[in-house]
Amino acid sequence: MTIDSERPPHGTVIIVSPGGLEHGGGIGRQMGYFLHALSSGPQGIHYRIVDSRGPWFIGASPLSSCSAVIYLSCTLIALVFTRCTQAACLAHVNITGRGSTIRKIILLTIARAVGLRYVLHVHDYDYGDYYSGRGEVLRTLIAAIFRRAVTVVVLGGRDQEVISQLFQLPRSRVTILHNAVPDPVPALSRASPLGRPCHLLFLGHLSARKGLPDLLQALANLPVAQRCWRATLAGGGPIDEFRTLADDLGILDRLSFPGWVDQATVKALCAEADVLVLPSYAEGLAMAVLEGLSYGLAVITTPVGAHPEVIEPEVSGILIPPGNVEALAGALVRVIDDASLRQRLGAGARRRFLEKFDVRAYAERLSQLHASLLLDPQNVGAIGKGQTSQ
Q1: Cβ-count burial of 65 within 10 angstroms (0-12 exposed, 13-18 middle, 19+ buried)?
Q2: Is the residue at 3 inside a domain?
Q3: How does pLDDT run across 347-381, given as a tens digit for each residue?
Q4: Of 64, 216, 271, 366, whose CB count within 10 A is highest?
Q5: What whole-number distance in Å separates Cα of residue 73 and Cα of residue 79?
Q6: Whole domain around residue 303: which residue ranges?
Q7: Where does the pLDDT of residue 389 fall: very low under 50, low under 70, confident under 90, or very high at 90 and above?
Q8: In the predicted model, is pLDDT for residue 204 greater than 90?
Q9: Across the beta sheet with 198-203, what order do the strands follow?
Q10: Distance separating alpha carbons of residues 149 and 167, to the nearest angstrom
Q11: What is the pTM of this model?
């Protein structure tokens, strides 16, 4: 895709992201990385972030229902106002299942009524499963917002196939754009001082879906427990529940539970760790895996979502079956025991990141898509074949 240099793109793109940039989980982090990398993108496009949900912790507040209405109303006002005041405008709407979908049905039905065009960006770990479990009326509403999108952006080939089939969309309307992260230059050496425990890092919401109970069971496995390691389990969730499980397994003294961490802390943890472990049962494309690649960590994860499109087994990481505690324990023993293996996998991970998952290339592709849609209101956008993230 190319942009006409004699007619530079201009206009406004509203990015609708639940929780904004800091409290939106992987979606917010990805949009934040995108905006930060935009210095080399098309000039003349004004980006604005709108939080359609509020921080995740509002859900635990007695005022959560009132807060949800306020955030949703403010987002709706922003979309309608932009459409009424800007000749060239576009919404980039991030969506997952459950409450996110309900909010987007409300927003996009009204946005469509006022003529606002939108890109729908699916970040869900299994949107097909969510959609199939809804009632007929809700499925009809969901199908409508997908079919009216000028482009649907997905995280990998599996999602492209699922979304195309579910909503009867041609593949030219469903674009693969893998997540991406910044390059933490300068790349760090992964050589660990002799005698230092191997540092294992888990990044993500502490939950069964992320495989944390399996990880604790694997760490307590006798061959692993006999090795020299320590682990940081960083993320929000029921921390006390998992601390209790770790205590019952006899490994609590080797674990750290810092809770939810900001981006500065994520960077510090990745720079200090040796291994990134994420034994998830379901993912779209985990940002934690990409962070591990970028820092040259040895990555152990599962072949779910788009992970097989990212990790080449035994070259840029180790893939183990979801739920297989024995296989996870075996992989942990290998990387803990063998510093040369960690270095080899880390070097492969770093090469893979530089090839395909640097956010600067991501920003160029996505901003080019926005530019093409702003320049040509009749265009049904897609990232061109040469620019699709693979």
Answers
A1: exposed
A2: no
A3: 999 999 999 999 999 999 999 999 999 987 666 65
A4: 366
A5: 10
A6: 198-356
A7: very low
A8: yes
A9: 255-259, 229-234, 198-203, 275-278, 298-301, 318-319
A10: 11
A11: 0.86
Q: Go through 207-241 and write b for each residue having 16 or more CB atoms within 10 A of its CB, e for each that does not.
A: beebbbbbbbbbbbbeebeeeebbbbbbbebeeee
Residue pair 198/346 in contact (Cβ under 8 Å)? The answer is no
Q: Which pLDDT value is given to residue 27?
A: 87
Q: What is the pLDDT of residue 377?
A: 65
Strand partners, 373: none
The residues pairing with 90 across neighbouring beta strands, listed in sequence order, are 13
**356-373 as b/e, with b when 16 or more CB fall inside 10 Å?**
bbbbbbbbbbbbbbbbbb
What are the φ and ψ backbone dihedral angles of 149, each rounded to 5 degrees?
Answer: -70, 140
Same domain for 26 and 129: yes
Q: What pLDDT score does 20 carry?
A: 75
**Does any domain span residue 141?**
yes
Q: What is the 3-state secondary structure (H, E, C) of the chain?
A: CCCCCCCCCCEEEEEECCCCCCCCHHHHHHHHHHHHCHHHCCCCEEEEEECCCCCHHHHHCCCHHHHHHHHHHHHHHHHHHHHHHCCCEEEEEEECCCHHHHHHHHHHHHHHHCCCCEEEEECCCCHHHHHHCCCHHHHHHHHHHHHHCCEEEECCHHHHHHHHHHHCCCHHHEEECCCCECCCCCCCCCCCCCCCCEEEEEECCCCCCCCHHHHHHHHHCHHHHCCCEEEEEECCCCHHHHHHHHHHHCCHHHEEEEECCCHHHHHHHHHHCCEEEECCCCCCCCHHHHHHHHCCCEEEECCCCCHHHCCCECCCEEECCCCCHHHHHHHHHHHHHCHHHHHHHHHHHHHHHHHHCEHHHHHHHHHHHHHHHHHCCCCCCCCCHHHCCC
Number of domains into which the chain is organized? 2
Q: Which strands make up the sheet holding 45-50, listed edge to edge?
A: 45-50, 11-16, 89-95, 118-122, 151-154, 174-176
* Residue 237 domain flag: yes
Task: Give yes or no: residues 351 and 364 share one domain.
Answer: no
CATH of the domain at 297: 3.40.50.2000
